[in-house]
Amino acid sequence: MELIQQLVNGVSLGSIYALIALGYTMVYGIVRLINFAHGDVFMVGSFVGFYAVTMLGIGFFPALLLAMAACAVLGMVIERIAYKPLRNATRIAVLITAIGVSLFIEYVTIYLRGAQPEAYPSTLLPDRNLKLFGVVISSQSLFILGTSLVLMILLQFIVHRTKIGKAMRAVSHDAEAARLMGINVDNTISATFAIGSALAGAAGVIFGIYYTKIEPLMGILPGLKAFVAAVLGGIGIIPGAMVGGLLLGVIESLVSGLGYSLWRDGVAFVILILILIFRPAGLFGKNVREKV
Amino acid sequence: MAAKTPLLKAENVGIQFGGLKALSGATMELHQGELIGLIGPNGAGKTTLFNLLTGVYVPTEGRIMLGGETLNGLPPYKITRKGISRTFQNIRLFGELSVLDNVKVAYHAHARHSMLSSIFRLPSHFRGEQEMEEKAIEFLNIFQLDSVKHEKAKNLPYGQQRRLEIARALAAQPKVLLLDEPAAGMNPQETKELMKLIAFIREWFALTILLIEHDMSLVMGICERIYVLDHGQLIAEGTPEQVRSNPKVIEAYLGEEVS
Amino acid sequence: MATWKRTRGFWGSVILAFAFFAVVEWLIASGMLNIFYVNTLFFMAINVMLAASLHLIIGITGQFSIGHAGFFAVGAYASAIMTMKLQLPFAVGVLTAGVAAMLAGLIIGVPSLRLKGDYLAIATLGFGEIVRIALLNIDYVGGASGMTVTHMTTWPWVFACLLVTLLVIANFTNSTHGRACISIREDEIAADAMGINTTYYKVAAFVIGAFFAGIAGALYAHHFYIIQPSNFGFLKSFDILIFVVLGGLGSLSGSVIAAVLLTIVSTFLQNYPETRMIIYSLVLIFVMLYRPTGLMGTKELSSLWKWRKTEGGVNHGGKNTVA
Fold first, then answer.
1. Which of A246-250, A288-292, B143-147, C214-218 has the lowest mean pLDDT?
2. Which residues are listed as membrane-spanning (chain C) (predicted)?
3. If exposure means fewest CB atoms within 10 Å of the residue's CB, which of A38, C121, C270, C304 is most exposed?
4. Distance, in angstroms, between A287 CA and closest chain C CA?
């Protein structure tokens, strides 16, 4: 029963990773950029949700939507100011810029409100423990899982059934050809950043409810781990990010469950290095070689 | 005209990418001192064959031999050290390095001073570097690049970059030189001079050369034998006259363009 | 005679360096340099060593590594174990620091051969984090509270380590081995095709870079009394990265100048850590947006000097100057 309990925890944690990983993977798929600042967008989303609940006194769903909207705007602004001018620069230049943006968001947040943590109000969602076949599942876990699933299904719908989704797939396949076919590449990239960032914002609010404590540097580790999840599933592949996120969450929970909770944070990086060495394209990816 | 044992030999060489056969059953022989042309329409597999011969790709079938030694599976740098050197269709110079240093890099495998001797500036370091410098300048002289030796490679005009790539490939001291469309993007006058230069280095260094050209008429003048690739298969082989009158070749080229 | 001419620049720099050493030694001994300045000077030297060693990996060989603090940490802890736990002399500690970091460089360098660009960056970042988390979990080295270390780092030690670091890296770079590394940075496929054993040189760059980062770690550990895993997180790696990026990817003198300047800046901003990080982050973004080549590009100070000399009409044969 202990094992199943850990699995349930793992899936909840994993769904948070998966939501963040989706943004990484979508952005990477379309502009080949590891958006280091993505974890910080997640942090901003968490704070927006927190202030919306405590200051405006609104409920969970309005706060979630507000955080998602704020993060979508933030994502687009970051892309326009920092990444767009570097569209043709070297990969290293873009990566360094992304690191810069990440540090900037973190320390501006600290500058504006201090480094002290905040606690999410626990009354936001009904907290009742359900007993199913001897396993205790909190209603919060179910809420989190449900919200994540709805968002992921929504994303699948956007990517596969809407015009903007079609444009996104076209640009990620071949930006030049897409441009020639009359697709507005810049707007499509902006939309990708907006959608990815909105998902990270939602993950921020969910994280706050689940773990209660939030602080300005909270985005770093989940951000990196979500990236690991994206690589695990095959970066650029949307279902890969979901599976990678859930898998990573479960593995981490199992490691904690086995009594190595302090090593939990190291596991993700060991997985990362192993996957990069043995299957760099990820679980769902195809290997591509450089053209000579 | 040809020696008895071939210097470079490809036996039924082929490669598959996923399910796609990019090249199959390619058999060719290069004898010491020959200048051989490799022609074919766009996408016929010419560069793929080069990549197989130089170890960039590992053949999924067949065997590549250099003077009786099998090269299959060796990494590119080892194949280069065994004596096959190449240029690239889309110029791949070391842009930030000077012209002189570009050539020196290719001579690196023949340098004898160790890393430690360089770090501690032992006499062997200075001797080794001196020798490299002299050798590199020799090559630059042949290609009339000595006047720009301190320029960054990326700042050279296009024609000089093409020449520098050949100079660099030669500095690796190959037995076989593979040139991938060396005249691409050059005007007729430059092309003519380049072909003269290629004929000259072949004599001077006693080289065996395999030359890719997209334009058939160009190689007719200087190559002794020509191989023709189309759709990943060698469809013809022979002297320029034989190839020119081969109906398969005519069809392959007429199917695409009239040259 | 010929050798003298070639090594003139080298000996000139060595003599200058020793003059600098003597002056500082005298200033410290006579008490004219107060502890604040001595601290800043030591910190500057350690940062220069870190910057120079990362420059070899990123700037010269083009391997984008952002886990340099990991090597720094390995060196710091390895030396502290030698001197504090095993009571061995400082010299043994310094050497062990270098060797231990070198082994770590080998461990991260070998898998790195398969990775390129941003994948390598993430893997090295992961490596740095693994080192930090491992240190956090090993009780022998004190876990989160870290180790207390006796103060043993003196100016002669700092100076000697710094000089050796810069000389070795400059000498390596200005040789056929350094050119082999640069050719990998410029075009790995072409380097391979020209007979360069790219695997060997990538690992060599990691190993040499890690060695000196480890030495810097030993100096750091024995200067600041206490070492904790939190001193070696990826913020430290980013600090080092900023030196190299701001200085110019590919310029040793650029990295050194940037390390010196930014050490001064961060000393002034010591009491405003957020402001410091905001400035750092803006520096990263603006350098990439408006001057992606950094302060110096791939140029060196010595080449500026040489260029003026050739302008003057004196033709200078090869470029054999060191440092």
1. A288-292
2. 9-29, 35-58, 65-84, 90-110, 117-135, 155-173, 200-220, 240-265, 277-297
3. C270
4. 13
Residue written as tokens 């930006």?
Answer: A175
For B55, which residue in chain C has the nearest alpha carbon?
Answer: C193
Residues B4 and B75 in one domain: yes
Query: For the ranges A6-15, A230-239, C110-119, which has the lowest average pLDDT?
Result: C110-119
Are B41 and B15 in a shared domain? yes
Is there a single domain that holds both residue B188 and residue B66? yes
- Structural domain tally of chain B? 2
* Position B3 pLDDT exceeds 60: no
- b/e sequence C201-221, b meaning 16+ C-beta within 10 Å: bbbbbbbbbbbbbbbbbbbbb
Q: Does A104 touch chain C (CB under 8 A)?
A: yes
Residues B253, B178, C175, CA angle at the centre, nearest 5°?
A: 145
Helices C176-186 and B123-142 sit at what angle, rounded to 10 degrees? 50
What pLDDT score does C33 carry?
Answer: 82
Q: With 90 as the cut, is the pLDDT of residue B43 above it?
A: no
Please give the residue that has the higher pLDDT: either B203 or C308: B203
| pTM of the model as a whole | 0.89
Helix (H) or strand (E) holding B30, with range, is strand B20-30
Q: Tell me phi and psi for residue A45, to 5 degrees.
A: -60, -40
- C171 and C62 Cβ atoms separated by less than 8 Å: no
pLDDT at B143: 92
Task: Tell me how close the Cα of B249 comes to any Cα of chain C, in angstroms.
Answer: 31
Same domain (yes/no): B195, B77: yes
**How far apart are the C-alpha atoms of C248 and A92, rounded to whole Å?**
13
Question: Are B113 and B180 part of one and the same domain?
Answer: no
Q: Are residues B208 and B98 in the same domain?
A: no
Is the separation of the CB atoms in B109 and B80 below 8 Å?
Answer: yes
Find the helix or strand (DSSP H, E) in which B66 lies. Answer: strand B61-66
Please, what's the b/e burial string for A55-77 (b: 16 or more CB within 10 A of its CB; e: otherwise)? Answer: eeeeebeebbbbbbbbbbebbbe
Q: Are residues B102 and B178 in the same domain?
A: no
In a domain, B131, yes or no: yes
Domain boundary among B173, B199, B225: B173
What was the pLDDT predicted at A60?
A: 87
Domain that holds residue B106: 93-173
| B35-39 and B225-230 strand pairing | parallel
ipTM: 0.91
Contact of B87 with chain A, judged by CB distance below 8 Å, is answered with no
Confidence of residue A6 (pLDDT cuts 50, 70, 90): confident
The distance of Cα B237 from the centroid of its chain, to the nearest Å, equals 19
Q: Mutate which of C175, C185, C249, C296 to test chain B, going by most B C-beta atoms within 10 A?
A: C175
Query: Using a CB-CB distance cutoff of 8 angstroms, which residues of chain A are in contact with residue C278?
Result: 103-104, 107-108, 111
Q: Does B97 sit within 8 Å of C186, measured CB to CB? A: yes
* Residue matched to tokens 């050197």: B85
pLDDT along chain C (323 residues), means of 10: 60 85 88 86 96 96 92 97 94 96 90 76 87 90 90 93 95 95 95 95 95 97 92 90 90 94 90 88 89 81 58 36 36
Sort out which chain C residues have CB atoms less than 8 A from B101's CB and list them: 179, 182
Structural domain boundaries in chain C: 34-311
Element (H, E) at B23: strand B20-30
Tokens representing residue A262 in the block: 């302090």
* Final residue in a domain of this structure, among B122, B144, B173: B173
Q: How far apart are CA C177 and CA C207, in angstroms?
A: 14
Q: Which amino acid is at A2?
A: E
Per-residue tokens: C258: 């940037």
The CA distance from A177 to A183, in Å, is 9
Same domain, B54 and B165: no
pLDDT 10s digits, A184-228: 999 999 999 999 999 999 999 999 988 889 999 999 889 989 999
